[in-house]
Design brief:
Number of strands: 13
CATH superfamily: Metal-dependent hydrolases
Radius of gyration: 18 Å
Strand content: 5-15%
Structural class: alpha/beta
Strand order of the largest sheet: 7-8-9-10-11-12
Shape: globular
Number of domains: 1
CATH class: Alpha Beta
Amino acid sequence: MTAGTPTARTVLGDLAPDQLGVTNAHDHLFFASRRLPGQELDDTDAAVRELRAFARLGGRTVVQWSPFGLGRHPEALAEVSRSADVHVIAATGLHQAAHYPPELLARVRDRLAELFVAELTTGMHRADDPDGPTVPARAGLVKVAGGFHGLDAHARHALTAAAEAHHATGTPIAVHLEGGTAALDVLDLLCDRLDVPPHRVILGHLTRFPDPRVPRAAAEAGAFLALDGPSRAHHATDWRLFDVLTALVEAGHATQVLLGGDTTTAAARSVTGEGPGMPFLLTALRPRIERELGPEIATAIFEASPARAFATAWTAT
C-alpha cells in the first residue's frame, strides 16, 4: 500500500484540506437514537436552511459525527451539501451500545472494521442497513465512543475496529467521550496499544469534565480536542469552554483545538427551534475568541486545525 496526497473526504468528493475553510468540526445534520425518542433530526429542508445560515456567516464545512445506525441519512447528505453550498464530512463508526437495537449490534459486531473501511472507500449504507445498498457518498472519518470513566467491552471492540480501519485507510478517528471522561483511557488503547498516531485521534466533549489536567494531558499526547460550543443538550457546561480553551492556547496547543456546535435535536437548531444552532459559532464564539485571544488564534481553531485534523493521506494499492 502507498500513501497519496493528503485530502479531506467530503460527501461530494475529495478536497485539498485548505479548501475546507471555516469549519464546524462537530455537529449533526441528521441524527436519531433510541435514547432520544421524538427528538430526531430528520428534516432535509431544515438541514439545508441551517447550513445556509452557517454559510451566510462565512462557514464553509460541517463535520457530521452521526455514525452508522443513528439516522445519518447518507442518501440525503450530498443533496444537502450541494443545495447549501457547504462541504459536509460524514462519519462511519459506531456509538455506545445503548443507542442501538441489540439485533443490529449482533449483525455488525463481527465485521465492524470491514464495514468501516467499506463506508470510507466505497460508499455508505443507505438506511444504515449493513446488508443493504450503498450510496456513492463516502465517509471521511470514523466516529466511536468511550464509556463513563472507562472503556467497557463494547467500547474496546469498536475502538479496536476503528484502529483497524485507520491502519487500512489513514482516516482520523473521532471519539465521543461520555461526560468528557476516559480521554486518557482512549489514548492508551488507540495510541499505545493499537499504534494509531495521536494526531489521528480527535477527542470530543472535553469541556464536560471539569478537571483541567485531562485536556492538557490529551493535548500534550498529541491528540486533537473537539470542544463543544453551544450544545443545547449540555449547556450547563458551556461556561467551561473559554477556561479550557484559554488554558490550551496559553500552553501552546491552539493548533490542536477544534470547535463544534454538537446540535443533536431540532430544538437546538437556529431555524427550527430555540437555537442557538450552528450560526452561534460565528456570531458569538469566533468574535469573542478574536477579542480575548487574537484573530490568529481564531483562524487556527476554525481553519488551520480542521485542515490538519480531517486530512487523510488515503492509502491506495
